[in-house]
Design a protein that fits this description.
15 helices, Aspartate Aminotransferase, domain 2, Aspartate Aminotransferase, domain 1, about 35% helix, seven-stranded mixed beta sheet, transferase, alpha/beta
Amino acid sequence: MDRQRSVVDTPARQERRTLLQRDAGLVWHPYAPVDAGAHYAVRAAEAARLTLEGPDGATCEVVDGMSSWWSAIHGYRHPVLDAAARDQLDIFSHVMFGGLTHEPAVALAERLVAMTPVGLRHVFLADSGSISVEVALKLALQVQAARGEPQRQRFLALRGGYHGDTFATMGVCDPEDGMHAEFSGLVPRQAFLPRPPAGRLGANGAWEYDDGALTAWEAQTRNVAEGLAPELAGIVCEPVLQGAGGMYAYPPAVVGILRQIADDHGLLLILDEIATGFGRTGRFFASEWAETTDGQAVVPDILCVGKALTGGYLTLAAMLCTAAVADALGAGPNGGALLHGPTFMGNPLACSIAVASLDLLTGGPGGSLPAVGAEPGQADPAGARPPWQVQVETLQARLRTELAPSRELSCVRDVRVLGGVGVVQLDGPVDVAAVTREVVDRGAWVRPFRDLVYVMPPYVSTAEDLRTLGAAIIEGVARVHD
């Protein structure tokens, strides 16, 4: 064993091999075989740009069109977030949350309650987005049991949805068109609603969709819910935009309909805002696009947030619930305990950075430092709107402009933009390796999947960044597919 280790790990041997060579066959990457390796190595990151090293050892600077899977909304090496991390490191980086608390966790929970839909009052701090949904599902099951209905053990979810990679969350992902079909016989068997009709945000700010298709969808959905109601605990959905399910937007009215169905049948409505929260769709939370049938804001029973919560610095997520949900749990067995408790729950380092990130979004303490002008990453000069709103509105306008020429390509089926999300949908599967290489050669980083070349760039992306990003996508797609 010692001899093997000396062969693999000696500094002299490492110096003779590139980072990509050392990675290949050693480290698993997402949804890939262990010998797949990586395409590029990151050598530096600053603002909205990455410095990549290719297989030949050459480096190049690229615009990050992915915000590191939608999390690095403030870009990289942001001085406010860097300072928050250093300041907390000088105090302590971690302590158990069982029986103890600390300022960063309480401050973060206070901010989340203040900025989420009115009525959400209690916060569970989780390790990741998948775990926050896992906890939400467990909470719903415990609440139904506490209400005297332990037979309610299934969930309704939308076709096309994605909610995580853990076993309970895989069960509420699309069972056929998702990424977990291999485990279909092992995960809990849930019930699925048809995918809602597509919708898009028009240039005038109004949602466009087929009214007749929505009416038919509602009738079918209500019929499914009524037939299964006695065994259902809750409804789970990504509001307005399904992310990994194809960057698929649907009419906000769907969320209001699901709220009404949940109320009609005693179900808990769980909204998964892990990808859509913190401004990405043009509302601080995507559910804010929706209203109930009587014109009221839609308030979920349980809300999950993650990804951008720490600005992409550390893994952290949160589940919030209403007082009614917490009270129902409190009346049940186990002394009202929510039966989950991660080792790194409420990690103070992550919580401190999350507080600073939320302040940057809202212009709160420390958040006004970069606040001048109208570039993404800067605040409204008149001070009338929070920084995130100016940033995302600017992103939306520029993405529409920069991606519009891709409509002229014969291989492109659709181009759509919602907030800080831009999608170029092809008429067939993307040649991921070839398109990625062509786009990187033109100064941008994207991670296509299925038939989509999509972007969710950092909010701090400049006009030049977005011009580079748009041109790289259009030229790269044309080179490979047109």
